[in-house]
């Protein structure tokens, strides 16, 4: 049996806020509904000492979806690894990493995704990439706005 190709996508944004504070906003999923317009609720399903399991309730195009992720938080490296537990075809598997990198007096935030699609279909992979680009760009812009301009996350960051 042939191994499916791993497709990748990277999205970045510059934020004029300290890296530690940006990381805290990324790591704290309880405040994500304020950032992600399609996200309705977050439920913590467990923590094994290294990884947390989280369920996100989303509404996309009028349809409710549940998305379960396993997340590994690394505050020392300002990194959050994630793996999606329940995928919907054409996706076969998906995971990635959030990176918060010091950049001058601010930060660069990176979301890397890796995924596999049924039959290595390039059309399906392009569709997944388009969806990731739309959602990641929106999330990163909302994160930047929350950190720089608003108190959307219920905290003061400056």
Automatic annotation (TrEMBL):
<dbReference type="InterPro" id="IPR019587">
    <property type="entry name" value="Polyketide_cyclase/dehydratase"/>
</dbReference>
<protein>
    <submittedName>
        <fullName>Polyketide cyclase/dehydrase/lipid transport protein</fullName>
    </submittedName>
</protein>
<dbReference type="InterPro" id="IPR023393">
    <property type="entry name" value="START-like_dom_sf"/>
</dbReference>
<dbReference type="Pfam" id="PF10604">
    <property type="entry name" value="Polyketide_cyc2"/>
</dbReference>
């Amino acid at each position: 049996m042939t191994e499916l190709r791993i497709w990748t996508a990277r999205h970045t944004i510059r934020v004029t806020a300290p890296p530690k504070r940006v990381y805290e906003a990324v790591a704290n999923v309880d405040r994500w509904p304020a950032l992600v317009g399609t996200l309705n609720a977050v439920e913590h399903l467990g923590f094994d000492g290294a990884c947390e399991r989280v369920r996100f309730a989303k509404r996309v195009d009028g349809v409710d979806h549940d998305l379960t992720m396993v997340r590994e938080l690394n505050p020392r490296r300002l990194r959050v690894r994630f793996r999606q537990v329940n995928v919907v075809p054409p996706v076969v598997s998906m995971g990635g990493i959030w990176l918060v990198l010091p950049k001058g007096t601010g930060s660069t935030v990176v979301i890397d995704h890796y995924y596999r699609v049924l039959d290595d279909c390039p059309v399906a992979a392009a569709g997944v990439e388009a969806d990731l680009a739309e959602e990641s760009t929106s999330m990163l812009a909302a994160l930047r706005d929350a950190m720089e301009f608003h108190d959307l996350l219920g905290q003061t960051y400056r």
